[in-house]
Design goal:
The protein is of the alpha+beta class. 22% of the residues lie in helices and 23% in strands. It has 7 helices and 14 strands. The strands form 3 sheets. The protein has a 6-stranded mixed sheet. Helix 3 links the parallel strand 7 and strand 8. The radius of gyration is 17 Å and the shape is globular.
């Protein structure tokens, strides 16, 4: 089974890129972020023609997440409040969370806020959002032990995940508070699938448009697959595909593809809300 994550930075702008990539890389599940389109306008038919089921949670011009799958996904829910019914609904005003169960694995597809700059209101929102994410996962884990949490995390957890020309502690996406917030989430029992197979620096999934960063390979690794223990132990590969970033008018992110064996067929775990 292959599960890929890709921040496409507008599904309608990058439609031919995503369709072409799926034709060459027919993964079982594709998790998209920054779709930037309301649900009614998502270009479903293009993916249905390829044999994919489509699940979306979007908004106009900003944010948005989607799941594309070869077979139907069970127990699809969107937002935090579908699982955490007692939290402030403001946390779902931005469409950033979609989850469902595919062949016994709960796929949690996330678009974590960027945070803009350290100390800003958006930075405070990001840290609060990560705290809600921790509570959300704590609710999911007892009933769904096999979780693949993936997406654009907008955080480089280690210095080796960033090119060398960065003032790391004072930069958004690498500040101490952001890293600590993500580390607390991972302490629930998640491991970084990519680092199981490659511990070297210099592997990136995002390159800033503004500084010709891709041409200079000044990137960040901020798109991740985090796995619960059994899935991590069974993971067979996790790679970054830089080829779509070489296309004309590409997304600034590259897809990251995880390969794991199919789990024994069991009844899907459902969340008791």
């Amino acid at each position: 089974m292959k599960i890929a994550t890709w921040n496409v930075n507008s599904i309608r702008t990058r439609l031919t890129h995503v369709v072409g990539w799926l034709q060459q890389n027919p993964v079982d599940v594709l998790c998209l972020q920054e779709t930037k389109v309301i649900d009614a306008d998502f270009p479903r038919s293009h993916f249905q023609e390829l044999g994919y089921h489509v699940y979306v949670y979007g908004q106009k011009s900003y944010n948005g997440v989607a799941l594309l799958s070869r077979e139907p996904i069970a127990d699809v829910t969107t937002g935090f409040t579908s699982i955490l019914s007692d939290i402030d609904p403001q946390w779902d005003e931005q469409k950033r969370v979609i989850t469902g169960i595919y062949k016994g694995i709960r796929v949690v597809n996330l678009y974590v806020p960027n945070g803009s700059e350290i100390g800003s209101e958006k930075y405070t929102y990001k840290l609060g959002w990560l705290k809600i994410l921790q509570e959300y996962l704590q609710k999911l884990l007892p009933n769904t032990p096999h979780i693949c949490m993936c997406g654009d995390f907008n955080i480089a957890l280690e210095d080796k995940d960033i090119h060398e020309h960065v003032d790391i502690p004072n930069h958004i996406m690498s500040s101490t508070a952001e890293r600590e917030a993500l580390s607390q989430i991972l302490n629930l029992g998640f491991r970084d699938a990519f680092r199981k197979f490659n511990d070297e620096p210099g592997h990136f999934s995002w390159w800033d448009y503004r500084t010709m960063a891709f041409k200079r390979d000044r990137g960040w690794r901020i798109d991740h697959h985090y796995l619960t223990p059994q899935l991590y132990a069974q993971a067979q590969s996790c790679v970054i595909d830089k080829n779509p970033r070489k296309l004309e008018k590409p997304s600034d992110h590259a897809p990251v593809i995880l390969e794991i064996p199919n789990l024994p067929q069991t009844e899907p775990f459902l969340v008791d809300t």
